[in-house]
Amino acid sequence: MPIPFPFDPDITRAETLPARLYVDPVWHALERERIFARTWQLVGHTAQVQAKGDFFTAEIGDESIVILHDGLALRGFHNVCLHRAGPVASGCGRRQTLQCRYHGWTYALDGTLTAAPEMDGAERFDPRAFRLQPVQVAHFGPLVFACLDLKAPPLTHFLDGIAERTASLAPEHMRWVLRRDYEVACNWKVYVDNFLEGYHLPVVHPQLYKELDYDAYRVEPHRYWSLQHAPLRPLPPDPARAAERRYVPGDGDTAAQYYWCFPNVMLNIYFGQMQTNAIIPLGPDRTRTIFEWYATEPPVEWQADDGWRRLVEFSDAIQREDIEIVEAVQRNLRSRVYDRGRYAPKRENGVHHFHALLHEFLS
Ligand code: FES
Ligand SMILES: [Fe+2]
Asked: Does ligand 1 come within 6 angstroms of the Cβ of 326?
């Protein structure tokens, strides 16, 4: 059992997380149990499960799950047959029953076992005692979330207040457009820390820095999520310099909302468009980041659309800048001379808030 780590709830006095939390496999295993097995994880989108029998599989930590539409609602199960642990689904598709891919035991869409071939000689074998083990499923707009812990509070408890704040942007009318995955050689928390502050903007993202009003940048923490305010800079009066700007401040951008939801999901919601990032730990120093875009009016083919191509290229460029710095940080977290640092109270309150939640869940 790892030693509890020190954490000061007062940011003006606090030191940052001990470096071992970012490199030691012991913490990776503990986070799997205490964070990822207990919180809501973004696993897919509603278009994948619209009709009765539509299903897709997903992973939370090392657990395989299957999400399906049973004709009335979304359901989720561990993708583990109760005979000898075969998978009852793979990939995605539409099936009216889940048949195990090992010996063919067959389950109905509500998880009950309906057929178990050649079990007739087995004494006191009662198929009713075998049901696929459920997981919790819920959706926010088009985003499907699942939670392994049946006792965890509902998704709305964790996202409390976001639906109201984003109502005018109507994320529920947005449809999936595209996905991009990146593998990053850092601990998932290094990536999240980096997302949660604008402090690195001037040095790491000079181009983006020109677009955003750095002085007005701030992070507003709530119970399980935080909201970043990053308004655009006013256009400079000099037309030549104004022409270099990629974003023009207008009514649309004032409505942009950048959420981070504990532990590992970012929801960037704009007028007519939404972008999600899911930060998936693969190991103590390996992380997958899944970027997905949604839009109220999705393009027929985003590659053929100039606006969308530019958007994705710009996002790629920013992501490359972030990847370079977080990978360098990850290497240095193993240094013999570094353990803990200090927070800039005005700029890193979002990081401190994340660390407070880590402390709450891990200790
Ligand atoms: S493991 Fe599923 S039928 Fe044997
Ligand atoms: Fe960044």
From this structure: no
Least confident of 115-124, 153-162, 202-211, 244-253: 244-253
Domains of the chain: 20-37+161-362 (3.90.380.10), 41-151 (2.102.10.10)
Ligand 1, atom nearest to 104 Cα? 3
Q: How far is the CA of 200 from the centre of ligand 2 (A)?
A: 7
**Cβ contact 18:340 at 8 Å:** yes
Q: Using one digit for the tens of pLDDT, what is the confidence trace for 251-293?
A: 555 568 999 999 999 999 988 999 999 999 999 999 999 999 9
13-25, pLDDT tens digit by residue? 999 999 999 999 9
pTM of the model: 0.95
105 lines ligand 1 (CB under 6 A): yes
Q: Does 137 sit in the ligand 1 pocket, CB within 6 Å?
A: no
Q: 197 C-alpha to center of ligand 2: Å?
A: 8
Nearest CA to ligand 1 atom 3: 103
* Cα–Cα distance, 308 to 267 (Å, whole number): 18
Distance 327 CA to ligand 2 centre (A): 12
For ligand 1, whether the C-beta of 86 sits within 6 Å is yes
Q: Which ligand is nearest to the CA of 322?
A: 2
